[in-house]
Amino acid sequence: MSIFVTNLQPYRQRTFDMNNLHLAVQFFLQIAVILLACRVVGAIAARFGQPQVVAEMITGVMLGPSLFGELAPDFQKWLFPWDAKQMTRDTSCYLFPASQLGLALYMFIVGMEFRVDIVRKRFKSSVAVSVAGMVTPFLLGAGLAWVLFHHTELFPKKTSITEAMLFLGASMCITAFPMLARIIHFKGLAGTTMGTVAIGAGAIDDAMAWILLAIVLASFDGDASHAIYNIGGAVGYVAFTLLLIKPLLAKASGLMIQNGKLTEAGLVIGIAMMALGAWFTDMIGLHAVFGAFIMGTAMPRGTMAKDLIARIQPLAVALLLPLFFTYSGLNTKIGLLNTWFLWGMCLAVFAAAVLGKWAACTLAARATGISGREAMGIGILMNARGLMELIIINIGLQRGIISEGLFATLVIMAVVTTLMASPIFDRLVGKGTAQMEPEPGAEEEKDSLPVAM
């Protein structure tokens, strides 16, 4: 290995001043390594009842400096050239936009398979679970942020105490809506009371978390008008998409379907609409995933949505989404948690996130008339933070709101809470206990949540 790495030194040096050809050559090799590593870890994870998405989160961290970088630092830096100050062209130049495309396409799929009818039926429970599951961990997270702010250097000096408390609170209270969707399908809970309430509460959680993030970013920029602009733009986008774009697409769906199948033009229009939605919400300071999800809900159900999902999902799920987890893993440096105090703070963050979310969501579900076992299942499912947690903390790291040490702490929390959701659910709730919700009468509404990898 040492001889091989030594021979790579001149090439590794050139990777920090790459032209487009070198970037492409490096990217192809990285894709092969990422996908194969994800599948190997996925095969192992499947033996423990874990969905592929959990394996991808773990693989992303393993390929970064926390494991691969420790075992073979020179080879890791050659394979994934990374400039922390972003002053040169490196892996992030192409891995970041590719990962964002994967997220947007996946959330577009989630939007197309989102069943509004069952969320509406269990709306009271979903709202109660969402509010309880946000307020409790948010307050715990804000309290921990106060401690970390005054007793550690995990928040940069330019971050204020208010911004620190808001950001960590938002990070603690979020539920990974797309991750939750995949776990629910993996467990066969689509259309059940547990799955319905959890997915509805998760959607509300994420919307509120983005509002909190908009407030933090506005405060960080020193301009409160940014938050108003973000929130107002989001409300306007949702109204415009659902009240105007959705009925127009429904009327035009016949032109995009021939012989019972989606045409190439229909596929292009669907992807283009997704891209426009993602572009707009990114432009107003939210995130591309929000715009892509809302545009997905506006797609006509039936043949158009079914064929769009069938043609987009393999690319988004099998190729592009693993790139996001790798991008996050390359930013994760667990070695920065190098004292017992910091590991104690990491444990405190984890405990507050898990206990606050689980207890609050379980009690709220129980208070709205859901059985004890199903209420407990909802609380466990709501603890999966994975994908959306990684999105938020990546934004926090890029904007300089949190340090690399706190980023590593929150990555650990995101991975472990998602990793534990499936086995704890099987252990405490078990299979066959969920009650199915009646399917809607319309045939076009039957399909529900995304297929897990």
Tell me the overall shape.
Answer: globular
Low-pLDDT segments: 1-6, 10-17, 434-453
SSE order, as H and E? HHHHHHHHHHHHHEEHHHHHHH
Q: What fraction of the residues are assigned to beta strands by DSSP?
A: under 5%
Largest sheet: 2 strands, antiparallel
Mean pLDDT: 79
Count of distinct strands: 2
Question: What is the CATH class?
Answer: Mainly Alpha
CATH topology name, in short, is: Na+/H+ antiporter like fold
Structure summarized in a few sentences:
The chain is an all-alpha fold and 453 residues long. The chain has helices at residues 2-7, 9-14, 20-46, 52-62, 68-71, 73-79, 92-112, 116-121, 123-151, 161-173, 177-186, 193-221, 225-252, 264-283, 288-298, 303-330, 340-367, 372-381, 386-399, 404-428, and strands spanning 257-258, 261-262.
3D architecture notes:
The structure is a single chain. By secondary structure, the chain is mostly helical. It has a single domain (97-445), classed as Na+/H+ antiporter like fold, CATH 1.20.1530.20. The chain is 74% helix and 1% strand. The protein has helices at residues 2-7, 9-14, 20-46, 52-62, 68-71, 73-79, 92-112, 116-121, 123-151, 161-173, 177-186, 193-221, 225-252, 264-283, 288-298, 303-330, 340-367, 372-381, 386-399, 404-428, and strands at residues 257-258, 261-262. A hairpin with a 2-residue loop joins strand 1 and strand 2 (261-262). It is globular and about 60 Å long.
